[in-house]
Design goal:
With about 260 residues, this protein is α/β, with parallel strands linked by helices. About 35% of the residues lie in helices and about 15% in strands. The strands form four sheets. The protein has a six-stranded parallel beta sheet with strand order 1-2-9-10-11-12. It has a two-stranded antiparallel ribbon with strand order 3-4. The protein has a two-stranded antiparallel ribbon with strand order 5-8.
Length: about 260
């Protein structure tokens, strides 16, 4: 006889960071199978961060060669600032990710949500394309864990760059949600950037938090035109939540309550 399983939560998710610690595609399949055994139905795949870019881009090939590898990694306690000198990298091809997302859903009923971090946690991408930062300064992919001042600039060319990346992402992941990060975004570069300050003035924004809301809103509008929904960390609440966006609150229940009220 068929068995009906009642569950309390429709979204039962696991989060896997493959940017700081790369896992090969074979491991992802084992991970999905294990998640299914415990009745999880979402895998949130953290594909990009400061320490590595793991998503193959056909349009921006330097992401595949420069952004996917760092020359060393922090070892030991953060306070000691010790690093090894071992090159560390890895990348999933679009073909691999497309098949993984399809197999997850067809075999285990698991939806894969890809995350492309923006506007912060951007150092890996900016190592390849520094022109999309505020300073244009070329820096390596860092092996240090932490939060970095250099983030994506809010200029139109950067927004187009990231929307072009999302365009590639959409073809591989059929699920409704696309995660854009939005967490831990220092505003120091924006405060000293003439382009960002001019954009704030043109848009009538009061501060850099509202500028981040504008940035996320541009991605939200783009995803809506492709019948997708934006999801981001609870910092996207700061400066005003973009209409229709979903919030993933990593800093506590307060962000979830605030999002629900909006």
């Amino acid at each position: 006889f068929p068995v009906t399983i009642q569950v309390q939560f429709r979204y039962r998710g696991m989060h896997l960071d493959v940017s700081r610690h790369f896992f090969d595609i074979g491991f992802l399949y084992k991970y999905a199978e294990s998640a299914s055994n415990y009745r999880f139905n979402v895998i949130h795949l953290h594909l990009t961060d400061d320490q590595g870019w793991r998503f193959e881009s056909k349009r921006y090939p330097k992401l595949n060669t420069i952004s996917s590898t760092r020359s060393g990694t922090q070892t030991g306690p953060y306070s000691l600032q010790h690093f090894d000198s071992i090159a560390y990298g890895g990348l999933y091809t679009q073909y691999q990710l497309m098949n993984f997302a399809k197999d997850c859903y067809d075999v285990w009923g698991i939806t894969v949500i890809p995350e492309i971090e923006m506007p912060g946690h951007a150092r890996a991408a900016l190592a390849a394309y520094p022109e999309y930062s505020c300073t244009g300064q070329k820096q390596p992919v860092p092996g240090l864990w932490g939060v970095f001042e250099d983030v994506f600039c809010t200029k139109d060319s950067t927004i187009l760059f990231l929307q072009n990346i999302l365009d590639e992402v959409l073809t591989l992941f059929p699920g409704p949600f696309i995660h854009v990060g939005g967490d831990e975004v220092p505003k120091s570069r924006w405060k000293s950037c003439s382009t960002c300050q001019a954009k704030m003035k043109t848009l009538g924004l009061n501060d850099e938090h509202e500028l981040q809301s504008y940035f996320i809103g541009q991605m939200d509008q783009y995803l809506k035109t492709h019948n997708r929904k934006l999801i981001g960390w609870d910092e996207i609440l700061e400066g005003g939540l973009s209409p229709g966006a979903a919030v993933m609150s990593w800093r506590g229940t307060e962000g979830g309550i605030a999002a629900a009220k909006q």
